[in-house]
Write a structure and sequence with these properties.
This protein is mainly alpha-helical.
Length: 190
Amino acid sequence: MADNTAFALGLITSALQWIFVMLSWVLTTYLGRRTIYVYGQFINCGFLVALGIAASVGMSNAASNAQASLGLIVSVLFCLGPAPASWVIIGETPSVRLRPLTTGIGRGAYYLVNIPCIFLSSYMLNSDKWNLGGKSGYVWAGTALFCSVMSWLFIPEMKHRSFREIDILFKRHVPARKWKQTVVELNDDE
C-alpha cells in the first residue's frame, strides 16, 4: 500500500473513531452497557479472524487492501462498543464509597496488561521478528474471545439502575446475566 494511501486511511480511521464514540453515547442509553460491550467484543472477534484469514491467503494487492480495511473496521467498531462502554461500566460498577480506589486499581491493571500487549504487537508485526503481520488477527481474536466470554459471565447490565439498586444486586450476589430481569423494590434495603 502506498504511503499516501496508508496516511489517508489513518486519517479516515481517526475521523470514524471520533464519530463512532459519539454514536456510542446514544447506543449506550438505548441498548445498555453490557449489550454494547459484550456483543461489540464478539463482533470484533469475528473481524479479527477475518483479518487473519485475509493475511493467510497470500500476498496480493487485494489481500493487502482487505487487511487494511478489516483493521479499520476493527478499530472503528471497538470505538463504537467496548472502548467507550468500559468507561461507563467502570464509573457505575463500584460502590460509591470504593469508586475512586476501584477505578484506580482497574486502570492500573489495564495499563499493566497493556504494556506487554504493545511489546508483543511490535514483535508480531515487525518483519525482522515474528513477521505475523495480519495473521496477528488470530492472536488478538483469541484474546478477544476470552475477554468476550469473561465479560458475558461477569459484567452485569446496569441500564436504568440507580447506585442503590446496583449495590443491592451486588450484595444479593445476583449473577451478571440475571441483572436485567431482577426486580429491586423501592423499600428494599440491604
